[in-house]
Structure formats: structure tokens, C-alpha cells
Amino acid sequence: MQWFWFLCLTAGAISDIKERKISCRLIMICALVGWIYAWKTDLAVHIPGLMIGGAILIASKLTQGAIGAGDGWFFVASAGYLVIEEEGILLISGLIVSWCWSIGLVLYRIWNKGNNRKDTLPFLACMWPAGIWLLIR
Q1: The pTM of the whole model exceeds 0.70
Q2: What is the pLDDT of residues 52-89, one digit of tens each?
Q3: How many CA atoms lie within 13 A of 25 on its CB side?
Q4: CB 75 within 8 A of CB 56
Q5: Phi-psi region of 133 (alpha: psi -120 to 50; beta: other; left: phi over 0)
Q6: Which of 28, 50, 81, 116 is deepest in the core (most CB within 10 A)?
Q7: Which residues contact residue 27 at a Cβ distance below 8 angstroms, ignoring those fewer than 6 apart?
Q8: Rounded Cα–Cα distance for residues 100 and 58 (Å)
């Protein structure tokens, strides 16, 4: 099931990079398969993972979409595959990679005297390195 989750992460990251949004159909399929898997294995260990996705969804509402709701929904779907510790690793590593990416964008815009107010980051793509690590460990 980890491979299927990683496939969902990869497809979501590609969608996030290309379109700056995550396909609702992708999230629904990922969530359905993941929660069936969680129900068949041990649902109780997957329920706490919903807190991370829920927190991101709340942050999305509070920031009026500055933090993407698709990222929150992806974490809700991922809770079916991952335990909360794994989701925490995914979130923290994604934040670290996105911070580095942001610094790179800012420096690029400063050196090229461009405006970076409209730049957005595809957060699912930032989680991809941690996704690989979770898959192969």
C-alpha cells in the first residue's frame, strides 16, 4: 500500500507543479483506498493522523487560501496509509524543503530585480523527498 500512497503523492506533486492545485479525484481515490486499508489493518493507529490534515485545513480557512486546502486534504487521505509520526516527518521535511525553495525564489527575484509577490510553492512537490525516504526505509 505504501507504493500506492507514493504514486498518489507523485501524481499530486506533478498536478501541484503544473496546475497549482491538486485534483479532487486524485485525493478521493487516494483517501478511499487508504481508509479501506486502514480499516482492514488497524484503524486506531491511523485516526490521530487526521489532526495534521485538519490543522492544515483550518489554517487554509484562516489564511483565506494562502495555505492550500488541497495539501490538507492530501494529509487527511494520507492518514489512511501513514501513522502520525510518519505524517509529522512528511510535514516537517516538506516545510524545510519549501523554506529552501522560498529562499531560492526570493534570492533569484532580488538578483533579477523581479517581483515575487505572486509566486506560489507546490507543497506536495516539497514533500516528495520525504515520501521517497518513507517508502524505502
Answers
A1: yes
A2: 999 999 999 999 988 889 999 999 999 999 999 999 99
A3: 2
A4: yes
A5: alpha
A6: 81
A7: 12, 70, 73, 74, 77
A8: 24
